[in-house]
Structure formats: structure tokens, C-alpha cells
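User: For a teaching handout, I'd like to show students what a predicted protein-ligand complex looks like in C-alpha cell form. I'll give you the sequence and the SMILES for fe (ii) ion. Please answer with just the structure.
Assistant: Understood, here is the input followed by the structure.
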Amino acid sequence: MMEMITLPYKYNDFSFISEETMKNHYEILYKGYVNNYNRAFLDLRKAREENDYINIKALEKNLAFQGAGAVLHQLFFENISPIKKPIDQILTNKINEDFGSFEAFKNQFINNITNIEGSGWGILGYSKMLDKLIILQVEKHQDQTIWDFVPLLVIDIWEHAYYLDYKTKKKEYINDIFNYINWAIVKERYKNEG
Ligand SMILES: [Fe+2]
């Protein structure tokens, strides 16, 4: 069973995201994914017990959709922080190596996420096979397909994450949240892989 993380900050700790947005995001959206992910495992267990696989396609699709949503939300909530947690030298060096400079990385990351069609996620991840940081644009999170890609930094760009506060000013939200990335967590995730 997957359990929800407890947020290490309060709903109203971010000056640029309203309490209502954070509350809905955590208590409705994220909670829904976690509950449905756990339910999907129960549905699959029932199918195994009854040897009834007539709905296996729907069950597997639902498992991937809910599971990806639950995991990405956990990563997202963990990798933002109302207190600035600056990037360290190890990760800066790796970003410089793979993107040319931190500014070039930031520019690509922000443009990438701004240009996601509709809902999705901007993700900085690490490919162990290439020993390389890669930015992905994930529109359908159940279809994320670079199998050795480990997400290090995840930004939610579904409308529920910003629309109440930013309406159509998606880029402003991204620029603001970019300043509140918990780089300590991102580095920790990278260190565990690199
Ligand atoms: Fe979300």
C-alpha cells in the first residue's frame, strides 16, 4: 500500500500559491491518486483470485495512470520548499556538463514546461545508461517511456496546480515555482543514482 507523505510545510507557506490551491492539490488530487493506486492493486488481486482477466487492459491502464500520478505528486510536493534550498556544487557541475550552464538548463526547463500542450509535468531526470541529465515533457504520465529515466525534479503543470492563482499566466507560475525548488532533495535523488 502506498501512503501519502505528510507535507513538510503548511498550505499557506508559499507566497505565490494560495492556501486553497495547495489544499485542493494535496487533499483532493494527490489523495485521489494514492487511494486509486491502492485500489488498483486490490482490483488486480481480485482478478487473480477469480482468474478473471476480461478487464485486464483497463486495470493495467488504470494502475499506470494512478500510480504515475501518485508517485509524481509525491516527488513534486517533496521537491518544492517555501524556504530556499540552493543548488550545490555537485549538481551544478553535472548541469553545466550536460546543459552547458545553469542558465541554459533553466531556460530549456522553463520553455519545455511552458510549451506542454494542456496538462502535464516538466521533469528533470537522470539516465544511468548515459550518465546524463535529461529534461522530459510528460503530457500523459502513464506513457512515460525512458525506462532507465529516474525523475530528480518534477514540476506539476496541470491546471489545478496554478490556475486559481495564475489563470492563463502559466509561465509566471513556472518562473515563481522555479525559485522555490528544494535542491537539497534533487541532489539527494541524483546522488542515489549517480
Ligand atoms: Fe497535481
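For the handout, you might add this sentence: Helices lie at 19-50, 56-78, 89-99, 102-114, 163-166, 170-178, 183-193.
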